[in-house]
Amino acid sequence: MVCTAIFCIIAEQLLKFNTLKSIVSFCCATLLLVSCSNSQNKTLVSEKAATFAKTITAAELKDMLYTYASDDFEGRKTGEPGQKKAIEFIKSHYVANEIASPIAEDDYYQEIPESYFRNSIKASENVVAYIKGSEKPEEVLVISAHLDHIGIASNGEINNGADDDGSGTVAILEIAEAFKAAQKAGHGPKRSILFLHVTGEEIGLYGSRYYTDVDPIFPLENTITNLNIDMIGRVDPKHEGGKNYLYLIGSDKLSQELHDLSEAVNKKYFNLEFDYTYNADDDPNRFYFRSDHYNFAKNNIPVIFYFNGSHADYHKPSDTPDKINYEFLETRAQLIFHMAWELVNRDERVKLD
């Protein structure tokens, strides 16, 4: 409204005074209109999202994780029986919530042959589900987490991997359920969303690399962003006793607009502490290269890697569901849902720098 008023005032001046000064004023007004339009496009669009974000609850996350990170799944080692139970668990959630597969009806598995693992690991599967966009279905947001873990220790103890990456897995399932609820209520996403559960992360990012390098279900040039979730259920030593937080990695590496949007969403809805320690180019941990987002980033797709940092139970049998902070996990998953909502419902996809 303000922009329109400015335009009308300048137009009236043009009609009264046919001068160079008026023409210059008109040009300035036009530029201002464009600027205002761009500014409006960058405002948050997620007011409707709050209702559906609240369907992501600590109770449901806890219920799923106690199953997914139980001994029955035998540590979910790639290609092993426990990993096969894991993919069935994930698939059954999508089927129960009427969230379709992008491959074919009832076919949620992207098969990865044994040869791709250099015959050192049995054949395995990514699990995929999606919600089709209503206005720009060809543009796709990918939300990813790895479904595998490291299996059974040499002493027979099971590495349950509750945080790594059971927390990311159940977070995606809840996020997908929230988007489906929104769609059923008439607020489906404008762009499509692919929920991608990748295998083989622990042995070298195999599942995500297979998706990006061999068989991208949706063209990479149409993939607007990857939000990758790997360990978001715990608190690391640095943040013990403090407020809820997340490490964000990669948000500004390829798109400053993505980073700014992420900051705006957090400030408006949650005000978590965002820690960018591991985002530094000289980070000795090199986490930017160590999770599944990297296979998207190397293809010039903007990414955000959500991470709670390492802890004493990392890659140990003691990474169990009783140690998860479910209130923190709930808020973190809701934050990622809000961010995803923004990305799929804005007028334009975030710009690649």
Can you put this structure into words, describing what you see?
It contains ten helices and eight strands. Helix content is 40%, strand content 14%. It starts with a helix and ends in an 8-residue tail after the last helix. The model is unreliable at 1-41 (pLDDT under 50). The chain has helices at residues 2-16, 20-42, 49-53, 58-68, 81-96, 162-184, 206-214, 256-269, 293-297, 326-345, and strands at residues 109-112, 124-131, 136-146, 191-198, 223-229, 245-249, 273-275, 303-307. It is globular and about 55 Å long. β6, α8 (256-269) and β7 form a beta-alpha-beta unit. It folds into two domains: 2-39, no CATH class; 45-345, 3-Layer(aba) Sandwich (Aminopeptidase). Strands 1-2-4-3-5-8-6-7 form an eight-stranded mixed beta sheet, with helices on both faces. With 353 residues, the chain is of the alpha/beta class. 46% of the residues are buried. Residues 126-338 form the Peptidase M28 domain. This is Peptidase M28. Pfam families: Peptidase_M28 (PF04389). One of its GO terms (molecular function) is metalloexopeptidase activity. InterPro entries: EF_Hand_1_Ca_BS, M28_fam, Peptidase_M28.
